[in-house]
């Protein structure tokens, strides 16, 4: 049975997993939904009470019934690169592809519904609280006065996008940034603003969760002024770090609550060694951690994807075969 | 009328205009010009930053 990977061609991080799947002899079928109606085609029929569906790409053909897992990695929008792209065609192609895949019995990393919900940072913060993870005091508001009041209670603040998205017109990045004490909060009225108490950190933590496996890495803070590790100019490497049992239990509770098979958790570690939850990226990058630490993240993902679907007969190369 | 958070925006850093590898649809992998699999060259991956948490931010929410 086959592992289906939905991602862009340039996703070299996904390649790290494909290498392991290839080495273990697990069939891989990789496509970018953006190529639908161009290099990617689909077909499915619902006849006589049964469903038979197929996908093709680059000369390969796979039965949807023969999928053991689907890795929703970094796919483009459906039919984005079609000869005549349109919002309507994207909706049509997305409904056709994901609608058929949802009907398969394959395991998902991560299911589209869970993935969509898990992107909401306010929801993340609430779930983290409920799971017992320490969350820095946070305010999301369009009331300037609420922001001023919050800044009085927590004078050392950072601001970050609610969605994590970066503006594209023109292309800009919005790193997590410190807010000066005398800041004018009037512009809070023009867009939801996420303000958070700055944790005086001594390290950043990236905890990559794959199923039940937790692989954590720590990077010591390079400078007092460093706020957003993604944009910090530092040569300090990531190093493997143990996960305290209490944190591990809370993280697993979060994954269960979010129905995620994969999550990349960002924490900051304070002077007491407490890990403060910042966010969980349901499709977060992992290659940079593996490259630094040597942790077997890509192999662990490959092993999760390669697990057979329990108690199910599958179609392999057109022949019925018992899944073992 | 600019939202508060955009007061902290900065120009997006351009990723490498060209990467030294190209997708091979037969292998379903990106390969270097000498035929090696790009993902197996960790030194190169570190140098290019294509697996880092800001790579892909242009099109994806999750880093």
TrEMBL record, chain A:
MvdD-like pre-ATP grasp domain: residues covered: 2-112
One Pfam family here: ATPgraspMvdD
InterPro entries: GRASP_SAV_5884, MvdD-like_ATPgrasp
PANTHER family: BETA-CITRYLGLUTAMATE SYNTHASE B-RELATED, RIBOSOMAL PROTEIN S6 MODIFICATION PROTEIN
Protein name (database record): ATP-grasp ribosomal peptide maturase
UniProt organism field: Streptomyces lanatus
Automatic annotation (TrEMBL), chain B:
Pfam families from the UniProt entry: Strep_pep
InterPro entries cross-referenced by the UniProt entry: GRASP_targ, Rbsml_synth_pep_Strp
NCBIfam families listed in its UniProt record: GRASP_targ
Protein name (record): ATP-grasp-modified RiPP
Protein source organism: Streptomyces lanatus
Gene: tgmA
């Amino acid at each position: 049975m086959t592992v289906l990977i939905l991602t862009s061609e340039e996703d070299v991080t996904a390649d790290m997993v494909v290498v392991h799947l290839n080495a273990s002899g697990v069939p891989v079928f990789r496509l970018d939904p953006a190529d639908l109606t161009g290099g990617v085609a689909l077909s499915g029929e619902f006849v006589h009470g049964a469903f038979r569906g197929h996908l093709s790409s680059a000369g390969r053909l796979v039965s949807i019934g023969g999928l053991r897992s689907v890795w929703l990695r970094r796919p483009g929008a459906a039919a984005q690169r079609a000869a005549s792209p349109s919002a309507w065609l994207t909706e049509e192609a997305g409904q056709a592809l994901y609608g058929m895949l949802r009907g398969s019995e394959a395991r998902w990393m991560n299911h589209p519904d869970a993935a969509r919900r898990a992107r909401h940072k306010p929801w993340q913060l609430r779930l983290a609280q409920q799971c017992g993870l320490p969350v820095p005091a946070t305010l999301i508001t369009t009331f300037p006065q609420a922001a001023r009041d919050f800044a009085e209670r927590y004078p050392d603040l950072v601001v970050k996008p609610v969605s994590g998205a970066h503006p594209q017109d023109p292309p800009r990045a919005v790193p997590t940034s410190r807010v000066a004490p005398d800041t004018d909060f009037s512009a809070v009225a023009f867009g939801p603003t996420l303000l958070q108490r700055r944790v005086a950190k001594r390290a950043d933590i990236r905890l990559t969760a794959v199923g039940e496996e937790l692989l954590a890495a720590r990077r010591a803070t390079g400078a007092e002024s460093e706020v957003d590790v993604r944009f910090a100019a530092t040569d300090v490497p990531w190093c493997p770090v143990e996960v305290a049992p209490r944190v591990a239990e809370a993280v697993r509770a979060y994954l269960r609550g979010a129905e995620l098979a994969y999550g990349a958790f960002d924490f900051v570690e304070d002077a007491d060694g407490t890990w403060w939850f910042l966010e969980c990226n349901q499709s977060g990058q992992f290659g940079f951690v593996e490259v630094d630490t040597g942790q077997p993240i890509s192999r662990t993902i490959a092993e999760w994807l390669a697990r057979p679907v329990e108690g199910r007969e599958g179609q392999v190369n057109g022949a019925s075969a018992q899944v073992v | 009328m600019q939202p508060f958070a955009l007061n902290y925006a900065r120009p997006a850093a351009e990723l490498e205009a060209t990467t030294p590898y190209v997708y091979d649809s037969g292998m379903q992998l990106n390969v270097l010009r000498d035929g090696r699999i790009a993902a197996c060259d960790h030194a190169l991956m570190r140098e290019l930053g294509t697996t880092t948490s800001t790579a892909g931010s242009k099109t994806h929410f999750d880093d």
